Each structure stands twice: as C-alpha cells, then as structure tokens.
Amino acid sequence: MATIDLFMFLCCVDVPFLELLFLLGITIQIGYALSFFGRIFSLNSFRGELNDKPPVSVIVCAKNEAENLRQNLPVILSQRYTNDAGKPLYEVIVVNDASTDHTALVLLSVQKDYPGLKVINIAAEEERIFKGKKFALSKGVEIAESQFLVMTDADCKPVSEKWLQLMVAPLTEGKEIAAGYGKFVAHEGLLNSFIRWETMHTFLQYTTYALNGFPYMAVGRNIACRKAIFEKALTSEAWNKLPSGDDDLLVNAAATKDNIAIVVDKDSFTLSMPKADFPEWVSQKQRHLSTGKYYRPAIKALLSVYASSHALIWLLFILLLIVGDTQMVLLAMAFRCFIYWFIWLYTAKKVGEKGILPLFPILDFTWMVYNFGFSPYILWKNKKQWK
Predict the structure, then answer these.
(1) Which of 56, 168, 179, 260 has its CB 3.0 to 4.6 Å from that of 255, i.e. a possible disulfide?
(2) What Cα–Cα distance (Å) separates residue 251 from each residue in 39, 62, 132?
(3) How high does pLDDT run on average in the chain?
C-alpha cells in the first residue's frame, strides 16, 4: 500500500524534476556500489592449517527442533578439529529451551553415539533474565569451557569437516569476531530464489560495510567470537530489547573495524533448509528485521539512504518510461544494473550460489517491495517471540 501511495504522489510531480530525482538516485546507487560493494573484490579467505589449535565450544540453541537436531548434530559432532592423537579439541553444547516435541529424546539418542555432547535443558517455568533465544544462549556460554565460541542454529549443518577450523582461524590470528556465510538449499520456485538472493545481498552488505570500517551484523547460524566479547554484548543497552537478534546486537555492541573478520571460504559455510511456506518465511523475516532499529545511528543512516535510493529509482523508472525521456531512463538504469550485476556475479561465485543471476532484475525489483512490506518491523515494531 505504501508503494502505491508513493507512486501516486510521484505521478503528481513535474517530469523534469522527476528525471533529476531519478538521476540523483542512480548516482547514489552507483556510489554505494563503488564505495562499499566493490570492496567484495578485496575479500580474502583464511585457508591455512592451524598449527596450534585452541579448544573451542560450539553452542546450539534449540526449541522444538527434534528432526533438525537428528539430522544436523552428527555433522557438527564429526568435525575434523583434533590434536595429533585424534582427540577432539571441541565441545558441543545444545541448549534445549523448553521444547514440547521430542527434542530431549533425540538429544539422549545422539549422546549414546557422541558421549561428549553436553545438553542443558531449560524448563518452561524457569525464571529468565534475558528474552527468548538470548537466555538459552547465555546458559550455553555460561558452561562453555573454552574462550573461543562458535555458534550455529539447530536447523543448520556445516558443509564440510573443516567448518570449525576455518571459523576459528581468524580468532587465532587476533580477531575477536568471525562472521561466516549461511547458505540455503536451492529449490525451484521464485520464493526460494528470492530467499537465496536476499541472503547473498545481506552478506554483500554486512561484509563490505565491515571492510569499510562499519561492522553492523552477522548471521547467528554461522558466527564465532571470543567469550569475553560475548560477555561484553550481554551488558549492552539493546541486548535484551528483543527475544532474538543476538548475532546483530553482538556485532553492534562489540565489533570494530579491526577486530572482526569475514570468513568466506566455501568449506566454512553452513547449510539450512529455507522456508517453503510464504507465511512462515514472513514470520521469520519479521523476527530478523526487528533488530535493525537498534543499529548505531551511522549504520541506520547508511542503510536507509541505500534502501531509499533503491526504491526511488525503481518507482521512477516505471513512471518515467511512460512520461519521461525513455532513452535516458533506459540507459541510466542499464548502466546502474550492469555495475550491480557484475558485483553480484563475483559475489555469487564467491559464495557458490547458482541459478539466480539470470533473475537479477526481477529479484532486485522484488527487494524494493520486500522493504516496503516489512517496513513496520524495520522501523518500529518488534517480533515478540523467538520461535
């Protein structure tokens, strides 16, 4: 509805002014591509073998995730992260947050094959000092024996046996936070294509912002940090505003331009099954996008200008094709899209995403509709529940 109202408003404005506004939007978009997104070409991988592997604690929070845990936990528990004698140098802690399905039984079954698995069961009536997932996560960190933490979700699994080593590598080189990439399984359908495209877009944003000295988010399904950094985030003002958003708020509270690393090696990714049902996906995105309003003011300003200019050029592009200088509009939009498509092509190759680049114009336009649709959660609403 907001998109239609804005479009109707633009229809009432003089054409020369609209053309000037369109070119300004294109200029801003190209400026973002060159100043921020172009930094993706300088992103390097942490590939080296660790000579001195530190102990690591892997933390997984679960609420009604019985089937996901059955499938994914054995992969996490089979990482090739051992000493010379073959002894695992990591522990896996699963926090069962008052699940009402068979999560507890699945965890008991997995423990028979992997006795090193640690399980914390939180009762529904237990008093909570933090909201939602934050409380479960704090319980896991509390008993973690290592000063190096790696966190993922119950519905994720590492794509390789080297995942843990690659996520920890930056921490051994002096970094305090390592942000990884969380892939989604590819299926047919526009929703799946958009989910994977939006995931890659988000990765491109937070990666290049971090490389420019503006770290602001990571994804909770693939993030590592030092225990001290997590404890610092616990004391931040925004930490307990939401039941989720621990990943973004941790980065906002504790990341600097020097202490965060982006891990982009293809063996370091996690893999998740995307939502196939539109209402479920909407609910998930409402939860994720609620965090943005608690970003630092400079980050919010940068993201707002980018999203606003993106929406502006698409709305004006449609309108000016009808009432404006069609040749100028097409050439300007083609130039902008070529730059973005080239960056997307490199990014897709970097993170191993296939089959979505031919849909670039459609998905790029859909992202504008997506921003308008979720704007209440981006700007002021909070999702009240973790699951």
Answers:
(1) 260
(2) 19, 22, 19
(3) 89
What one-letter code names the amino acid at 84? D
List of E strands, 222-269: 223-226, 260-262
| Tokens standing for residue 326 | 């069609």
The rounded distance, in Å, linking the Cα atoms of 5 and 311 is 13
Beta bridge partners of 96: 62, 121
Consecutive H or E run containing 349: helix 326-351
DSSP state of 181: -
For residue 325 the two structure tokens come to: 């200088």
Quote the distance between the C-alpha of residue 234 and its chain's center.
Answer: 20
Q: Which residue has the tokens 């995307």?
A: 274
Check: CB of residue 213 under 8 Å from CB of residue 257. yes
CA distance 387 to 132: 8
CB 222 within 8 A of CB 247: no
| Residue 198 exposed, middle or buried by CB count within 10 Å (0-12, 13-18, 19+) | middle
Residue bearing tokens 């054995």: 74
Domains and CATH numbers, the chain: 2-42+298-379 (no CATH), 56-277 (3.90.550.10)
Instruction: Determine the pLDDT at residue 362.
Output: 92
- Which tokens hold the place of 25? 């939007």
Structure tokens, 145: 């024996």
Count the neighbouring beta carbons within 10 Å of the beta carbon of residue 378: 21
Number of H-type helices and E-type strands within the chain: 14, 10
Q: Which residue's entry shows tokens 């370091």? A: 268
Which residues, listed in sequence order, are joined to residue 151 by a DSSP beta bridge? 59, 223
How many CB atoms within 10 Å of residue 3? 16
pLDDT score recorded for residue 373: 72
